[in-house]
Each structure stands twice: as C-alpha cells, then as structure tokens.
Amino acid sequence: MRRLLPLGTALALALVVPAMPAHATPATSSPTASQVKASPEWTSTVVAVTPKAEKKAGKKGRYTKFALAGGGYGTRIEGGALPASSGRTAHKVIGCTNEAGLVRRNSLAGVTIPGLGEVGAITTTNRTRKFKSGRVASITQQKIAGITLMNNAFGKLELGAISTRAEAYHDPKTGFGTNISTNLLSLWFTPTGGKRTGFDVPLPGRPVNIPGLGRISLGNQESKVNKSRAIARADALEVYIAPTKTRIRVAHSSAKIFDEIKTGLFRGRASTLDAKALAGLLDVGRTQNIVMPCSGTGGKVKQDSVLDVNLPGVLEVSVGGSRQMGKQNGRKAWGYEEASLARVALGGDMLVIDGIKASVKATRLRSQKANSRTKVDTSGTTIGAITVNGETMSAPQDIPSIEIPGLPLLSVKFNVVERGKWGAKAIAVQLGVLDVNSELYGAKINLGVATLKIYDAKR
What we know:
This protein is mainly beta. It is 3% helix and 56% strand. The protein has helices spanning 7-12, 51-59, and strands spanning 43-44, 62-78, 92-100, 103-108, 111-113, 117-119, 122-130, 136-144, 147-151, 155-159, 162-171, 175-184, 187-190, 197-198, 208-210, 214-218, 221-225, 229-241, 246-258, 264-276, 283-287, 290-291, 302-311, 315-328, 332-346, 351-365, 375-377, 382-388, 391-392, 399-402, 410-419, 423-433, 444-456. A seven-stranded antiparallel β-sheet has the order 1-5-6-9-10-13-14, with no helix packed on it. Strands 2, 3, 15, 16, 17, 18 and 19 form a seven-stranded antiparallel β-sheet that branches. Strands 20, 21, 22, 30, 31, 32 and 33 form a seven-stranded antiparallel β-sheet that branches. A hairpin with a 3-residue loop joins strand 31 and strand 32 (423-433). The longest helix is centred in the N-terminal third of the chain and has 9 residues, at 51-59.
C-alpha cells in the first residue's frame, strides 16, 4: 500500500528549536516568583564548566568490566499552540564507557520560555562510580530551582524545587539493580484576577487537575533489571497546559549498566530511512531504527522489518528492514549493522532504485595497541538496479541533479561512507535538496543507513 500526503505539511510538524547550549554554576536556593521576560527567543545566563575540571575527574577513574551510560535534561516542551517547541535544556550525557570516576555536568542559571514563563537554575550531573565494596554504578541527577509559568490565558503556575535521581548499579552480593527518586517541593496556582492557592503535590496515579489550567502528574518511571543489565529512567513531572495545548516534561534522568565488557564498547545503529536538514533544524526521524547495546547483542541477531514506509510527497518505500549483531570474548569484539530496502520509487516511477543495502562490519582485537583503528568493512553496501525515466543504469553513478515535477531540484549519491578511527557509517542512497528557493533546501534523505563503531575497552 502506498500513502502520499503533502510534503510541506508533514515536514513542518518536525521543525524544532535546537537545544540550549552552555553551562552554569548550579544554584541551590529556593525559587521565587518572577515576571516573564519579553523575549523573541530562548535566553539564558550561563557560566561554563571548564574542560579541565572534567578531565581531572576522569584521571581518577578506574576501568571496569561493565558498560556505563547515562543522560538527563531539565525540560522538554512540545509547543502546541505556541509558536515553537523547545529542545532539551541543560542536556548532558555520558556515552558508552567502562570507566568509573567520571563526572559530567551541564547547568543553566535560567531560561526564558517565550510567551510562557521562566525556568530557574537547572543542573544535570552524570557520574560513574566504583565503591570499595566493588559496587559499580551509573548515576544521573537532575535539579531545577523552580519553574514559573505565566500567561494571560490561564494565570500563573509556580512549581517549587524539582529533582530526580536515577541509578543503575551492580553489587557483587546482590547483582544488578536500580534506584529511582523524584521530588517536587511545592505547587501554587494563581488564576488570572484570582487568589493564589496551594495544591498538594501529585502522587502516583493521582494527577493534580487545576481548573482553567490543565493537569500536573508524576512523570514516567521505568526500571529494567535482569542478570546482565540494569536500566533506570525517570521524569519528575509532566505538565499539560490546556489553554495553549502545551506539554512540558520536567527533570529527566536516565542511567544504564551492562555486563561483560571484555574487549570493546559498541556504538551502532541501523535504519531504513533517515531524513535530516542541515544544522539539525528538520528531523522526521528514523524508520526501522535499531540501536546496538553498549556490550553488543551477545551474538544474537536483532532485527526489525516493515512492509511499507513512506516519506509523504517525496518517495515511496516497499519492504524494508534492519539487522544487527554484536559479540565479544576475551580475544576480540565483532559485529555488524545492516539496513535494506527492496524498492524505492521517487516521483512515481521517474526514479526507481531496487535492492538497496547498507552494511558495516567491524572487528577489534583485544591484543591491538591502545587507540589503534578498529577494522571495518563496508563492501556489503550495494545497489541492485537503478532506473531513470524507464532506462536502467549499467552501474550506480551519482546523479548531480534531477528534476521531478512537483518536487525541488534533487541530487542523488550512492554508497556514501564516512570512516573514523573506531568504525564507519555507510549510506546506501542519499538524496539532497539543491533548490535554494525551497524551504527544504539542504535537506538530506538517507535510504539505508548503517553505523558501527567498536571502541577500545581499557582495563
């Protein structure tokens, strides 16, 4: 089945405001109500955390047999009736590592949300730790001094100090486990022209409904534990403001720990279709996207498939799927990422590409020198057949430009490969928008994407 919708309408929904950069010294005082600043864009007061401080913490680290990861952010806002949506504020992560003793921090002294209110000091802290008892943990903490939302449509909402903490750990005696905590100090609401009123904080399964405003509920909490890993995730709150149809996720923290890191740390993904614009302003997401765990898949093949995927108004995709495998032992770490599409038709049947496949294989030996290159193979990235206006090309050749009625001027590239020290990324087909007068100028549509890196697991 084929589905086509107007391209401009579908892609406009995906426009986002980039996440705020920068760092700041965290504030610990309780928030006070403040007036909304008149600002056409996000504003913040910041002080940078020096790279030297982070490196100093890293030097005290100890390497473990576990893969550790974590991430957090202060707020994430879906705009609804507002002019725009926000990215993640004070976003910070620790990627896949096996080093304990790391500290990563990102802070904002304050953020103004245009037309909605202010968020007080935000601090996101990620840590990896190893205790004398042998306990190893990934810990993420999120602290917000307070949030004041004010709009003529509903009045003023004041949230006191907010925090979350997510911990994923391994204890030699008890095995894997998680700890999750969230906290909201206070909740006040003042309707337009009305009296300031205090409310009890929300409880699990019992959101607070505020007449004329909307709903405040505890955010999602998730704990996954088995014999080889532990994952903890938490959002302190979810605020829904009915008059503006705005949804705010507040104080997100996540932490992960995986067992059996013997030779390498995996980072990889495979997706059948990935569409992005330059500068990250447009993102319609990845379809059939699977992500490689830090420690690999234990030799098991993970896959996902679909019969029909379309990017409305641009192309039609038939039968796609993604596969991955990662394994390691005391001698080596190896694996692959694959994404395939049976057929892609652009502009009806004006440009037809059959048998698309992106493939990256990687191998790393434990005996390799530190920081030496991981061995990669992208020769499995192939194209079956290409037909342009009914004529079949004898071999894949880049098309500098192609005009298709109703679409902007496009370029077509085949077998785009990006290599680095630790691995590679292979794109089977890449479509680019060349028309400078188009609102989509610079957009990249990747068909068949495979990425795999294996980092040296220092011991």
